[in-house]
Amino acid sequence: MAETKPSSTPSRGHGPMSGPGVVEKPKNFWRTTARLLGYMKSRLAAVIFVLIMAIASVYFQIRTPKILGKATTEIFKGVMKGQSEQKAGIHISTYPINWDKIQTIVPRSLSCTWPARSLVSCSSSS
């Protein structure tokens, strides 16, 4: 049989709650932060760019469903109007979807967002 070594510290098991029991607080947070930024001074522009892109990504993840919802509503209106015309006996070759309005939804939605909101007059009823 294989020998087992006695462990010097008791095992807490495996899984997400098996980390160290006591977490040590940093003694000089701001000094350490300043030193870290000093190390990254040559890449400061890249770090700022990444932070700006991360903020923009979150913003567009929040905004995209609203824009798609408006476009989907416009397509749905056209399909429902076309089906009601077909039920009424009117022959149509394509559904009357307002593609011009759909093409204006995305640019209008993007131009009425936060930093451009101060430059463009945006109406809330779109």
Describe the structure.
By secondary structure, this protein is an all-alpha fold. The chain has a domain at 67-111. The chain contains 3 helices and no strands. α2 (44-87) packs antiparallel against α3 (99-111). The protein is elongated, with a radius of gyration of 29 Å.
What structural keywords apply?
126 residues, single chain, mainly alpha
Quick structural gist:
This protein is mostly helical and 126 residues long. It has helices at 29-39, 44-87, 99-111. It has a domain at 67-111.
Q: Helix and strand string, N-terminal first? A: HHH
Quick one: biggest sheet?
none
Our measurement of the CA-to-CA distance between the termini, rounded to an integer number of angstroms, reads 77 Å
Helix tally equals 3
Based on CA atoms alone, the radius of gyration comes out at: 29 Å
Shape: elongated
Question: How are the SSEs placed, and which strands pair?
Answer:
Blueprint: H1 29-39, H2 44-87, H3 99-111
